[in-house]
Galactocerebrosidase (Glareola pratincola), 690 residues
Amino acid sequence: CRDGRRGANGTPSAPRSGMGCAALLWGWLLLGCSRGLGPPGVGAAALSAATYVLDDAGGLGRQFDGIGAVSGGGATSRLLVNYQEPYRSQILDYLFKPNFGASLHMLKVEIGGDGQSTDGTEPSHMHYENDENYFRGYEWWLMKEAKKRNPQIKLIGLPWTFPGWIGKGENWPYDYPDVTAYYVISWILGAKQYHDLDIDYVGIWNERAFSSKYIKLLRYTLDKHGLQQVRIIASDRLWEPISFVLLLDSELHEVVDVIGAHYPGTKTVPNALLTKKKLWSSEDYSTFNDEVGAGCWARILNQNYVNGNMTSTIAWNLVASYYEELPFGRCGLMTAQEPWSGHYKVEAPIWITAHTTQFTQPGWSYLQVDGHLEGGGSFVALTDGLGNLTIIIETMTHNHSQCIRPPLPHFSVTPQRATFYLKGSFYMVETLQVWHSRLDFESGNSSLFQQLYPVKVWKGSFSLDLNVDEVYTLTTLKTGKKCGCPEPPPPQPFPSNYKDDFNILNPPFSEAPNFADQTGVFEYFMNVSDPGDHVFTLRQVVVQRPITWASDADQTISVIGNFKWVNMTVTCDIYIEKQRDGGVFIAGRVDNGGIYVRRTKGVFFWVFADGTYRVTGDLAGEEILMKGLSGVRDNAWHTLTLNIQGTSASGLLNGYPLWENVTISKPSNGWAAIGTRSFEFAQFDNFHVE
């Protein structure tokens, strides 16, 4: 670890033993704090001053439950798994390792349901009713990596989508609540049986309706399977109607442990408080991870409690490990979207997180204080009940802390002096460690999570001069660290010549590297009956439309490559399994995905089991550019080649020209892709894009 200790203005300071700024600082503090640890160049006379009392004698506030982040909802960690070592472990350390970086207390993952859940689909552990596989996807791996670094981390599971069989043909998971409960509980049991993971909390259905009958049945089924320790969060949407219903239904009130709201804007509602339940912001942030994103995160981490009594805040998303041009690009606490180069970036929100997570733990308690600073901004104070105290202060200005949602009402923040009086069991505290961040929106030269010299508490009080857009942590704990790994490799575009023959006997993950499924699920497959050329393939395996969360396409599609690509040649061996009306495609210049997948445009080269082909300008197949006979049949291998140059495209079948000189007007660039005509089995092999 690098030593992060800095002087009061963020510049490297004199050693502690010297007579530089350290001695001066101690002198100021001993002289009754006529000038605190504040920003340089702000005259004392210009500052508004206010006093705040921190006292535990009259009891404590709510219990703190932790700071976390979401992997999924969906496919947000897709590219992370493909990083080579040591870079992958470095990224995981920055996220989960205690006293290293973000040091997260909680990890919330998607219970994959085969449907589109924002930036892709995540595979279900039960694609079909008689199918169970607890090694699909990457959330099992991620939870284990998190636990490896922090055995105390809390784990949360939440479904966004469900496999179609659960609804028996209806786009609704509550018609057969016993089936849905069995499905969710099998995921919890599988986590324990196959990965030794104890799930701490489970949710209902992300941002969609809840069913009281289902929630009660879920609790009953959990208890029946010896899972009494698993707590229920509801309803991962808004404060209402869940809070109102809990007040009316005593049986439901008994089985819901946490009310989880999304993007609450730091506010709660009276009914939620009346339930006396734990209140969480169970999904928040979702903001581009630059300095404004860091300001948003700093503000809500404090104010979700100060304004809304929320004792946990969970960021969507953990790490931006998906193609940036998909929806909500770079809305993670850090960025890791280039496994082919090893490049990643530890963004400012990581260090904003550390201000809270490195100096608190779930089970600590908030102090009963108002928490609003008179000059604008906020503070929270927490204790472990054993004499330790942590104070986190933020002075984020309105324009530098806007989250993606909801709209932020205007407020003002000005430089100010804050004097804190420590009473009760904190009266004997003599010094506090100090960690500081200053977000710089002028030069972009922010100072992040730097350790300053300790504050001397004089007769139970100390003062700080606070500038705008700052975060301070003052704490009795001496365990904080700003760790740094060697710089990762420089960024590189996706390889311009990329091949995958899928020939891997025991793949570490179920999905091939860099393919980002946008509807359907594409998995490694072993053809035991194949004579030899196509034993190992990639297979689309979702054969029934899932219970959707977003607008999944009617076709399946997986994208790959560089969104900026213009001219390209895509070649792939294809195998249609569905007789009569089956079909597959390869594509280039694919311009959309995620929640917008239905409106995807590009150049799509389709072949069908009835021996016809089509060229379309869209995934939906409505914009037909060319069509004719190909002679392709199901249950036989064929090689498709799509060549796009400038405004012209041509296609080959088994190496021979099938169509040419099709004029392409738009889109002008995009990914390569493979997919199927419907939710149907189909196989792909020897993929090559150049």
Summary: The first strand starts at residue 48 and ends at 54. The mean pLDDT is 94. Residues 60-475 form a domain with the TIM Barrel fold (CATH 3.20.20.80). The chain is about 15% helix and 30% strand.
